[in-house]
Amino acid sequence: MRFGETGVAMMVSVRMALPLLLIFLIMIHRGSSADWGVSYSPSHICALKNSSVIMSCNYTYPTGYKIEKVFWTKTNVKDKEDHPDLSEDPEYSQRLQYLGDKQQNCNIRLSHVTQKHERMYYFRFKTSEYKWLGKPGVTLTVTDLQVEAPERVTEGHNVRLTCKSSCTLTDRATFIWYRNSQPLTERRDRNNQLLLQSVRREDAGRYSCALHGHTYISPAAQLNVSYPPRNVSVSITGSGVIVEGDSVTLICSSDSNPPALNFSWFKENQSSAVGSGQSFSALQSGRFYCEVHNQHGSQRSDAVTVTVKGRLLILYISVGVICGAAVIITVLIW
C-alpha cells in the first residue's frame, strides 16, 4: 500500500472509532444499568392488624447525579405523566412517614395497617434526567389473630390452645394470653401455643391472645371444661317432720358439666332406688339421699332424715258431775 492509500485508511479508521469512543465515554459517565437500583429487605412483610410497619429500602445510582425527588407508590403503572405519590393519597397521607433521605436510604413507616393496605409497594426516585422505579417492590400482608381451641375438654386432661395468624409474622413476636379479658401474666412466651395441664373447672372461660407491644387483641374463643357431678346435696321443703298421710318434697342439686339429667333416690339400708328425678316426695320415715349421674361420673349426697308422725286424735269423755260441776276427761291419741 502506498503512502496516500495508508493515509486514507487511517482517516477512515479514526472516523469509525470516534463514535465508538464517544459511546464508551457516555457509558462511563452515565453508568451502566447495574448502577441504578432499589433493594428491599425483607421483600415480603407480614404485619399484625393495626400495627406499624417499617419497610426497609436502599437505592443506588451512578456518581455525578443529583436526586431531585423521592417517593413511594402503590402501583407500577403510570398515572398521566408519572406514578402517583403515596404521600398525596388521602388513605395514606396521615399514616405514611418517610424515614429515608436523598442519598441512599428510602425507609418508610406505615401506621395502623389493615387488610385494605395489602399490596405491593414501590420506591421511585428522580434526577434531572432520569427516573427509576424499584420493581419488583415490597409486598405487605396484614393478618389478624384467631384462637384455635377444642370445643370441649374433660377435667384432668391436657389442652393446647393456638394463637393463629394467616401469615408468618415478620417481627419476632411475644404472645400474651387472656382469660375472660384478664391477662394470664404467667403465660408470656414466644411460642404461639398455650398449654393447660390437668385442666380444672376454673380453667373454663373465653380465651384471647395478643402480641406484646401491640393493642390488637384477637376475638375470644370459648373453652368448655366437662366434669362429673360435684357438691351434690338434698334440701327439704319444710321441717322434715310430717303427719302420717302427708308428704315432704326433697330436692337434689349438684354442680356438673354438662348438667346432670339422671337423678336417683335411695333410702338407707335399701339397695334399690325408691324414686327418680330431681325432686322426690317422701311418704314415710327414714334417711334418704340422691345419686346424680352424667357421662363423666356420679356422686351421691349426704342423707337427710324424714320423720312421719301419726295423726293426733282428741277424745272428750264425760264422767259425770262432781260438786255441781261437770267433769270431762281429754284423751290425746297419736
Automatic annotation (TrEMBL):
UniProt domain Ig-like: residue ranges: 136-226, 229-307
Keywords from the named record: Immunoglobulin domain, Membrane, Signal, Transmembrane, Transmembrane helix
Transmembrane segments: 313-333
Record-linked SMART domains: IG (SM00409), IGc2 (SM00408)
The keyword Plastid is annotated on this UniProt entry: no
Record flagged with keyword Transmembrane helix: yes
InterPro entries with a match to the protein in the record: Ig-like_dom (IPR007110), Ig-like_dom_sf (IPR036179), Ig-like_fold (IPR013783), Ig_CD22 (IPR056386), Ig_sub (IPR003599), Ig_sub2 (IPR003598), Immunoglobulin_dom (IPR013151)
Record-linked Pfam families: ig, Ig_2, Ig_CD22
Signal peptide, first to last residue: 1-33
Protein name as it appears in the record: B-cell receptor CD22
Native organism: Carassius auratus (Goldfish)
Origin organism lineage: Eukaryota, Metazoa, Chordata, Craniata, Vertebrata
